[in-house]
Structure formats: C-alpha cells, structure tokens
Design goal:
The protein is an alpha/beta fold. It folds into 3 domains: 3-77, Archaeosine Trna-guanine Transglycosylase, Chain: A, domain 4; 118-240, 3-Layer(aba) Sandwich (Ribose 5-phosphate Isomerase B, Chain: A), CATH 3.40.1400.10; 248-322 and 330-474. The protein has 14 helices and 23 strands. A 7-stranded parallel beta sheet has the order 19-20-18-17-21-22-23, sandwiched between helices. A 4-stranded antiparallel beta sheet has the order 1-2-5-8, with no helix packed on it. It has a 4-stranded parallel beta sheet with strand order 13-12-14-15, with helices on both faces. A hairpin with a 2-residue loop joins strand 6 and strand 7. The longest helix is centred in the middle third of the chain and has 20 residues, at 308-327. It starts with a strand and ends in a 15-residue tail after the last helix.
C-alpha cells in the first residue's frame, strides 16, 4: 500500500511512502509532495474546520487547506487547552476471544512468576553506584545454572530529596526489589543517606530473607569484597531455580511508545492493541501509562471504565498531570516532539489517538499511582510521564514482566525488564536491526493487523519462556530512571 484512509469519517489520508505532487491518491490529485507518514487533505478544508483522523478531531485548520494539500504543523493547530470537565458516558465493551497458553517461567516462593532469573544490586542512594557497578563486573564469573545475569540498577537519588520525591524513590526501588524477574537482590546502602536501610525497609515491607540481602557500605572495611560474598550466596541459591509451566494469564505486560511517527497509529500501536486484547481477554494484565500522551484521547479511556469510581480516578489521573504541568508554568500541550513532527505527527491529539491504540478495546479495570503494584487483572492505567526511561521504569516497578515499546524512529535503551522494540515501519527495522525486535511495518504491506498481533503474542510467549532475548538484553542495555518532581537539597 502507498496510502491509507484510516477510517471512513477522516478528511485526511496518510502517505505510507513518499508521494509526489500530481500523483493520484485516494481519489484526489496531490497538490504537493507528501513525505512518508504525513497527511494530505481529501477535500477542501476551511480555516477553523476540524482535521479528522482516526474518526476524531486532531486539531483545526489555521488556514484554508485545498484538496490534495499537505496537512501538518504549518496549517494545523491543536484544539486542546487547560483543565476540562468530563462526563461519564460508558460504552459497550466488545466481546473478544482471548488466548491462554503456557510459558516457562520461574515460580517464586510468594507465588509470583518471573520470566527471567537475574540477580540485581539495587542501591538505596546514588553515592554507592560505583561500588555496585564494580561488584557486578566482578560477579559475572558467578553466573551459572539458570541465572540470566547480574545487574546493577543504578540511579542518582536516595538522598537530599523531600516529600513526594523521596517517597517516589523509595516506592520505585521497593517495586524493583520485589520484582519476580529477580531471583536474588542485594540492597546496597551507604549508611548516612535519607533513604538509609532502616527507613527504606519501612516502605519495602516483608521480603524473602533468603533472596533479599542488605549491606551498608560504611559498616564494612571492604564493601566490594563483602558485596561479592553476598552475591556469591545469592547466585548459589538462584542457580538452582528451574522454569515451570505457567499460564499466560499470569503475565503482566507494560505498553509504551517512544519516537512515534505517522505510521505508529496505523501499524505498531494497533498491533500491540490486538496483542493486549488477546492477553487481557485471556485473563492476563496490561498496563498503559504516559499520561500526557493520553491528552486528547482521554475520553475514549474514561468511557471504557468499568464503573463510575474508575471514571473518577481516571479524571483525577488526567487532571492531576495537567496541574503538574501548569504548576511549573509549562504548556499542557507542548507535545509532540521534533522527532514526532518529522515523522508525521502534527498535534497532541494526533499523537494520543495513535498512542492509546496500544491498549486495544478492553475495559479499564484499575487506575494505579506511580510506584504502586498491579493488583487487578485486566487493563490498568498507570500514573507516569511520557519520558521513555521514566515511564518504562514505572511499568517495571508496577510489576510488568516485560515492556512492549513501539517506535517509529528507534532507540537502544532497555529498562530493568525485557524491553521489546517494535518498529512502526520496515525501513527502521532494516536499518536498526540491532535495536528492533519485532517489525510491525509489515502491516503496510499486508494490511493484516490481526495476524501481526497474533505473531506478536507468539513472540512474547517465546520471550517469556527464555527461548529468545530482546536486543537490549543481548547488548546489556539495562537502566532505570525515577520520576522526580520537586526540590533537591
């Protein structure tokens, strides 16, 4: 396919390959060159009239737009502005066939399941990042049996933070310590930090003392030697763990996009939406985050809430994030990014209506705060920003076994859990084959999103079973970024 009209109501088409002035596309003659991923007018659109894509307004024309003309930032402006009032208008949730199969996972003592058997060093404070990294490098020789690797999850926080920031750090680190992908954890403290071990344990709660150990660097003469001894013990224990059959209904999958382009809402995001519905309708759980990239499509999510209480929580989720922007004097709708615009995304509505397709059509079953774990099966909305590293880390903290990360431009990073890069277009998959795990760009050729989503489901099962690894795992790209909002002393 060279072009597409996404829904019958749209007054713009999308070029799936670069189109030239004078070409015929969707029954119109193009009035100018149209870059791949970008929009063109299917009829005359008057100044002030809405631009319709995905059956919804993505902004309004700032000048008259002639049939066949390029529709982008030079002639389109967002309709969004400030805090809104919302009304609950629940929609029927379609009945769909889910899918439940077995994968090979690690059943932990508390009943949770991991898809990896890693050893993590989790610093309570950035001051001990370097010792943590030295320990991990030395501990590589300890990897044996079913252990997938030893990793330091370093970060710059844990001291000189106040209030909500301090709690965010503690909750994020606690979520990682409890994560079932870790067969053993060494919590590494300094001794004098705000987030010292005694204070951190108050937030951490109960742990398996065989698998979670603690060390204050100031309490020992040689912290690396002491840490390695603990890591040796953890490796001896975790190396004996074995994969067992686990139903896919126990999977928790995070949904994220970054470096989106004009193809994202046509290929990669709806492909993930098909996967999400297969998982959720089969009894599994999916987590959608990036609250600022719900702006403009939030009512679609609100109307899918199971009840009015969840609707109210979703309204708070949206408006609290808008107030966060406004508190710092920032424009609520200062989005999309330069890379998004270059790829064909014009306004935040354009971006959000594409982004939210990742969560399919299932009902919203819970809304959770930053750092809180998933407690309800099904589709969950999570409070976190759009930043790739922060949002992906937040998904892992809340219990995601893996993150499905759609992208139109590519990125190499990985969060603490396997981070599946799904390309929205085939040229990206071919160019950055060392980054991309799954190519949804084939949808441009086949037009078959359902089959692509089913293929993605099969890939995820193989990934969860340890049969394949993501590119970020192969290259050791793993990091965390914690949400910060406030004063640093």
């Amino acid at each position: 396919m060279k072009f597409v009209k996404i829904t019958p109501e749209d007054n713009v088409g999308v070029a799936l390959t670069a189109l030239s002035c004078g070409e015929e596309a969707l029954g119109v003659t193009l009035a100018e060159d149209i870059p791949a991923g970008h929009k063109f007018a299917l009829r005359d659109i008057a100044e002030g009239e809405n631009i319709i894509k995905y059956s919804a307004p993505i902004g309004r024309a700032t000048s008259d737009v002639k049939t066949g003309a390029w529709v982008h930032t030079h002639n389109t402006k967002t309709n969004l502005d400030g805090i809104l009032e919302y009304t609950y208008n629940p929609v029927p949730i379609p009945e769909k066939a889910g899918k439940t199969v077995n994968f090979k996972g690690f059943r932990r003592k508390n009943g949770k399941v991991g898809i990896r058997n890693e050893i993590w060093v989790v610093p309570t404070v950035g001051c001990v990042n370097s010792p943590a990294e030295v320990m991990v490098k030395e501990a590589e020789k300890l990897v044996k049996g079913s252990i997938d690797g030893v990793f330091a999850l370093t970060h710059p926080f844990g001291c000189s933070q106040l209030g909500g920031d301090h709690l965010n750090t503690q909750k994020a680190l606690a979520g990682l310590v409890h994560h079932p992908n870790a067969g053993g954890v060494l919590v590494l403290g300094l001794g004098c930090e705000n987030n010292n071990l005694d204070e951190f344990k108050k937030v951490l709660g109960e742990v398996n003392s065989e698998r979670v150990r603690f060390l204050n660097c100031q309490d020992v003469e040689d912290e690396v030697e002491a840490g390695l001894e603990i890591l040796r013990e953890l490796c001896d224990i975790a190396s004996k763990d074995e994969r067992v059959n686990v139903p896919s209904s126990e999977l928790i999958v995070g949904l994220k996009c970054g470096g989106s382009d004009g193809f994202s809402g046509i290929t990669a995001n709806p492909t993930v939406g098909v996967f999400s519905d297969m998982l959720v309708y089969g009894g599994g759980s999916a987590i959608l985050t990036e609250v600022p990239e719900m702006f403009g499509a939030e009512t679609l999510l609100m109307d899918r809430c199971e009840n009015v209480e969840l609707f109210d929580k979703t309204v708070s989720l949206i408006n609290n994030f808008k107030e966060y922007f406004m508190r710092y004097g920032q424009t609520v709708y200062e989005n999309p990014s330069p890379g998004n615009k270059k790829g064909g995304i014009t306004t935040l509505e354009d971006k959000s209506l594409g982004c939210t397709q990742k969560c399919g059509a299932a009902a919203v079953r819970d809304v959770i705060g930053y750092g809180d774990p998933v407690k309800t099966k099904g589709l969950n909305l999570l409070s976190a920003p759009g930043n790739d590293l922060v949002a992906s880390t937040a998904l892992a903290v809340s219990g995601a076994h893996l993150v499905l990360f759609t992208t139109g431009r590519g990125t190499p990073f990985g969060c603490p859990v396997p981070t599946v890069k799904i390309s929205s277009n085939t040229p990206l998959a071919e160019k950055k084959h060392a980054w991309i795990d799954f190519n949804a760009g084939v949808v441009c050729d086949t037009g078959d999103i359902t089959s692509c989503g089913s293929d993605l489901f099969d890939y995820v099962i193989a990934l969860a079973s340890g049969e394949v690894k993501t590119k970020n795992e192969e290259f050791g790209m793993k990091g965390i970024s914690i949400f910060k909002d406030g004063v640093t002393l």
